[in-house]
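Researcher: Hi, I'm a grad student and pretty new to this. My advisor asked me to get structures for two proteins we've been looking at. I'm not sure of the right format, so I'll just paste the first sequence and hope you can take it from there.
Model: That works fine. Here's the first sequence with its structure tokens right after it:
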Amino acid sequence: MKPAIKDTLKTYNLRQTDCREGILDVFMSKEHALAHADVEAQLTEQFDRVTVYRTLKTFVDKGLIHKVLDDEGGVKYALCKDNCHAGDHTHHHDHVHFKCTACGLTTCLDHVVIPNFILPEGYKRVETNLLVQGICKGCNR
């Protein structure tokens, strides 16, 4: 097991299991968001669908990964870069997600800030998701 995986699980107070180590390794090796099916495919059927789902949910709950809403109504997951912890994914308010219409990959644009906005009276913001679609730098070459 890579030392970074062990250290990350320890930082987030997560018990080390083969499934958690495997899923975290998958996320650390990719720079784009992954769907549940993508994670399963990377693990070549080592773990059942429910175990993978529960591990993803635990990672979200602990602030290790965050959900990325897809333009097709699905959910993908991306590794949180920093400053996130259980129950408080700070990136929801300060970066956008970009989906390439050519290759289909969704990435976090950590340094693109979502502009502040004021909701009408009586509304309370819980989460902000901004998905920009276009051609990524890899496909735009």
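Researcher: Oh nice, that was easy. Here's the second one.
Model: And its structure:
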Amino acid sequence: MTELDEEHLLRRVARADRAAFDELYRRTSPWLAVRLRRRCADDGMVAEVMQDTYLAVWRAAGTFAGVQGGGSAAGWLWTIAARRLVDAMRKRARRPETPAEELPVRSTPAAEDEALAGSIGDEVGAALARLAPELRAVLHAMVLDGLTVRETSILLGLPEGTVKSRARRARTTLKEALS
């Protein structure tokens, strides 16, 4: 298998040649799947990325510049797959792990609500009330609900680094307010 063979197959795929597409898939899918699995342990995600990649190849084969453009068919294919994998990982990171209908429903008021109402302590309640809403939400999730940084990140739809920095800012602000 030479790059020129795969380049030739891509040129035929660009002309909607299904036999060429089948041959290209037969030649490239085994190594592509191995490379994707090295970067992602989720077989379902790898299968989805493979499908998206070959769909993109079918649709965009005419855009492949070829060896004259400075690239190889395998390199072009890998670039498409790698981008699809990154997209799939980002999409999964934004999607909550637990469907909303499975989340427990609170039957008692949250400790934060009690603090804000003054039943725990006027000073703490006042300090919590002065926190910016985004800091209060992180503090509520991590301290009062006992969630991890990752769980808070998923719950609030924020990157983990943002959760960490907001938690630090909230604690610092509360400490200053209460000292």
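Researcher: Is there anything I should tell my advisor about the second?
Model: You could mention this: The first helix runs from residue 3 to 14.
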